[in-house]
Amino acid sequence: MTDVKAHDDDTARHGPLHYVPEGVVIATLLVGLWATSLHSYLLFHSIAEATFVAVSVAVFAMAWHLRRFVDSSFSLIVGIGLLCVVPIQFLHMLAYKGMGVFPGASADLPTQLWIAARALTVVVFLVAAFLAERRVSTKIVWAAFSFAAAVLLASILWWRVFPVCYVEGVGLTPFKVVSEYVIAALFVIAAAMTVRRGSGLSRVKRDLVAAALLVSAASEISFTLYVGVYSFFNLLGHLLMVLSVYLVYRGVVVAGTARTYARIVRDAMESLRDSEERFRTLFEQASDGIFLADETGHYIEVNPAGCDMLGYTRDEILSMTITDPVDPDELAARPIDMDALHSGRVVISERRFVRKDGSVFPAEISTRMLPDGRIQDML
């Protein structure tokens, strides 16, 4: 836990909002995106919407593949939810006035799709903040958000019961304006819930996601002010949306991945230490004599049973090689087959060994070469 907390605190001190160069980079990207609108508003709009789609897919991919390593359900719910929003957002991009993908459709269609996408997006973050500390069923989350997305699309494209949001020559309808205000308010509530309830998240992650949600609220307010679909406030709303998407990416994908990998490394180190402790206990308490030698044949470790068998202290044995305890006559008649050891096979033989007091005793010895090149003898 210390390693993870230290990482989060370091990110908090030197995070994306505190590094001037990164702030300059995102500002430059936003200015560059705005510049594309001077050439083609459709190009600008398509890039902005494609950014939302790309980040949503990235959030889902990260959350899905790391779901077994995190305690909080926040990222997984957001990932699944945003992926369900993607089809609506993508159709909004294709239906935008001037794209020509839906012949005969008015500017009301992309506006309806926009409201549907934003409404589902804010619900995703509300649900994620509410259930952040709980274990959730991925099947239920998939089913709920997929059903909501399907109903919204059907109400717009097939049933055609979704309220009118934009009238050519007139502008936004009262339903659209009120919806944007309600969605903006819900984004603010979601930000507050993320900070207060999201105890399963790191502080950096909470702050970045909350900032993204507040920027999304500002984006919604901007979308209540435009008259034409190519107007300034429409452009400003999309720029704020891109900024919020960037903050979501930094908070969920970057900060979330770093925190998760830090935990995986910590757990792996703890598991390794536990394994080493268990091995040491078995090594020390084994009734068989266990001798470890390096690739040159010099002993590097021996357990108490091995010391008792030969009558030497541990330090004395560590000054020997694997041939020293063997009866010289035995060794001359049957040298150690190093080629067999290098083949990876376990070599079992009976040999006579000489104790420190000069007495000779026979023993069955099992010798093998470990993957790291060390030689292990068991008597």
Q: Can you describe this structure?
A:
It contains 13 helices and seven strands. The longest helix is centred in the last third of the chain and has 54 residues, at 232-285. By secondary structure, it is an alpha+beta fold. The protein has a five-stranded antiparallel beta sheet with strand order 4-3-7-6-5. The model is unreliable at 1-20 (pLDDT under 50).
Summary, kept brief:
The protein has 13 helices and seven strands. It is α+β, with helices and mostly antiparallel strands and 379 residues long. A five-stranded antiparallel β-sheet has the order 4-3-7-6-5. Strands 1-2 form a two-stranded antiparallel sheet.
Record the SSE blueprint.
Elements: H1 2-13, H2 20-39, H3 41-65, H4 74-95, H5 108-130, H6 138-157, E1 166-167, E2 171-172, H7 174-197, H8 203-222, H9 232-285, E3 290-293, E4 299-302, H10 304-310, H11 314-317, H12 328-333, H13 338-342, E5 347-354, E6 360-369, E7 375-378
Antiparallel strand pairs: 1-2, 3-4, 3-7, 5-6, 6-7
Helix pairs in contact: 1-9, 2-3, 2-9, 3-4, 3-9, 4-5, 4-6, 5-6, 5-7, 7-8, 8-9
- The backbone outline, from C-alpha atoms, is rod-shaped
- Biggest beta sheet attributes: 5 strands, antiparallel
Nearest-integer average pLDDT: 86
Q: Low-confidence stretches at least 5 residues in length (pLDDT < 50)?
A: 1-20
Q: Report the radius of gyration as a whole number of Å.
A: 34 Å
The helix tally amounts to: 13
Structural class: alpha+beta
Q: State the distance separating the first and last CA atoms.
A: 43 Å
Beta-strand residue percentage: 5-15%
What order do the SSEs take from the amino end to the carboxyl end, as H and E?
Answer: HHHHHHEEHHHEEHHHHEEE
Percent range of helical residues:
55-70%
Spatially, the strands of the biggest sheet line up as: 4-3-7-6-5
DSSP summary, beta strand count? 7
